[in-house]
Predict the structure.
Amino acid sequence: MNFKESAKRRTSGSPILDGRTKVETDSLIARYPDGITITDFDFLSGDADKYVVCTFAEDPDAYFNGGRILTDIFTGFVDEYNGNLAATQKDFRAEGLKVRLYHGRTKKGNKVTLVEVL
């Protein structure tokens, strides 16, 4: 057993993040105004709730944290698989999902990342 590698896997929170660099949503929007193709996903637990993390085809060495809308989309996918995350991930990897991210505002004026499914 390689304890160092085992420890690294456990600190990332998800195997899909291993060896990848986090990209901020603002950077994604600026670099890919026509959208990205999400290739894989997983969930992490945050301060208040779980949120989705995604990899994307345009930069295979990167990942990003999804906001509320993407988290709701991927939670819905898993719900449609009766909560079976592994089966959902397997089928999702075969298809992927093209989306365009952009900024918007909530009714209260707060910044939100909106998602257009392409």
